[in-house]
Task: inverse folding
């Protein structure tokens, strides 16, 4: 069947006149495809009959198949326009979106799956592992590491799960501090030859960790069995150093993360005498970046390991005015006085717990800086802040992930009583 694509849905898929969503299709395309779910209004793209003027030739030969860059065949200026229009549609206004300084090779982390026939790569639309010889997201060096790893598992006859034990490999590399680490994830049905792989790759990586993933879920996280060399990544943001354990979260676009923190710093506009709460503080990348400009920064983070790490990173950078509390934000704040000059919010994709929202509104901080990778839930949360006496002062979207529909958005809220 032929379909004319007229719009983009919330997940970045092209939407036909009939309301069917197709991955890898863009507005003004005429495509050939078929419906795979009438109930969910989902289709599968097969080929382009007539190219949209928004289309371009992508450098990656897997474009249009690989799930890593579903927008790689969409001109970058149009990607930015779509993202900016999304924020305007949700909030009514925003500053012009900040483009990424690099369209390719911008990530500091990639999670690849092991597949049949010793393949290593990302999944296609049918959940099949594409054997990717060159990925345009991480770096040229990482492609060489993957090629050598592929040869190693082939020569060692290490087959993919469930036939064999191999599940995922995570490559993490410092962009500002040169170092690279690997995390190999397997089932627990056999021994992984970690020492042999280290001998093969120790000239190009600083550490390798082997973990068991016992979950049926397709995830690249597990119980660590053994490490050789570094079991952490070293990176810096705006000259602040961070030690990131192999399985800990960290912003994956280093250069844009630096720009994001600069925006947060501008929005916070600290004078040096403020008390600031950093809720959902993670490994402390935002709180530590603001510490030199505030009197006191208090982070709250559910992940205990990340909380401990944020304190280690504070010590690493000689910051004595940063502290952090481990626990779910909604639980910790029950016995905590949230009265402060400013609050920084960087919650996970589902948004802020309603108890946390209510507690913040009751505490009435003068200003709130809300960072989100999910503008839809951010908009819902901000509606409650508006009901609680806040006003949107500024909105700044930033493109952290070129060639994907993801948007990072920063909103500055000011309490009407302090205006």
Result:
């Amino acid at each position: 069947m032929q379909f004319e694509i007229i719009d983009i849905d919330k997940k970045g898929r092209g939407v036909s006149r009939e309301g069917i969503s197709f991955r890898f299709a863009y507005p003004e395309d005429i495509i050939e495809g078929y419906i795979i779910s009438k109930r969910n209004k989902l289709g599968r793209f097969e080929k382009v009959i007539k190219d949209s003027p928004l289309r371009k030739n992508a450098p990656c030969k897997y474009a249009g198949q690989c799930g890593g860059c579903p927008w790689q065949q969409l001109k970058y200026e149009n990607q930015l326009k779509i993202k900016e229009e999304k924020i305007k549609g949700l909030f009514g206004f925003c500053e012009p979106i900040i483009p990424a300084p690099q369209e390719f090779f911008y990530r500091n982390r990639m999670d690849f799956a092991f597949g049949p026939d010793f393949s290593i790569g990302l999944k296609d639309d049918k959940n099949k592992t594409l054997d990717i010889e060159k990925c345009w997201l991480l770096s040229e060096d990482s492609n060489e590491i993957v090629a050598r790893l592929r040869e190693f598992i082939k020569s060692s006859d290490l087959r993919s799960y469930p036939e064999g034990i191999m599940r995922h490999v995570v490559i993490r590399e410092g962009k500002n501090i040169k170092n690279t680490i690997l995390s190999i994830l397997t089932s627990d049905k056999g021994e992984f030859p970690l020492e042999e792989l280290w001998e093969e790759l120790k000239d190009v990586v600083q550490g390798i960790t082997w973990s068991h993933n016992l979950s049926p879920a397709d995830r690249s996280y597990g119980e660590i069995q053994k490490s050789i060399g570094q079991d952490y990544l070293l990176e810096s943001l705006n000259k602040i150093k961070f030690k990131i354990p192999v399985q800990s979260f960290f912003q994956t676009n280093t250069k844009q993360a630096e720009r994001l923190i600069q925006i947060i710093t501008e929005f916070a506009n600290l004078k040096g005498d403020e008390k600031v709460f950093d809720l959902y503080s993670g490994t402390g990348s935002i709180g530590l970046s603001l510490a030199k400009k505030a009197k006191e920064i208090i982070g709250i983070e559910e992940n205990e390991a990340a909380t401990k790490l944020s304190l280690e990173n504070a010590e690493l950078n000689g910051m004595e005015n940063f502290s952090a509390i481990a626990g779910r934000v909604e639980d910790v704040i029950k016995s905590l006085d949230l009265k402060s000059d400013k609050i920084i919010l960087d919650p996970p994709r589902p948004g802020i717990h309603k108890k946390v929202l209510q507690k913040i509104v009751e505490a009435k901080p003068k200003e709130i800086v809300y960072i989100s990778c999910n503008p839809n839930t951010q908009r819902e949360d901000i509606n409650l802040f508006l009901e609680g006496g806040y006003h949107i002062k500024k909105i700044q979207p930033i493109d952290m992930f070129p060639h994907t529909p993801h948007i990072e958005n920063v909103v500055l809220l000011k309490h009407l009583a302090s205006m």
User: Anything to note?
Assistant: The CA atoms of residues 342 and 367 lie 5 Å apart. The chain is about 25% helix and 30% strand. The chain has three domains: 1-55, 109-236, 253-418.
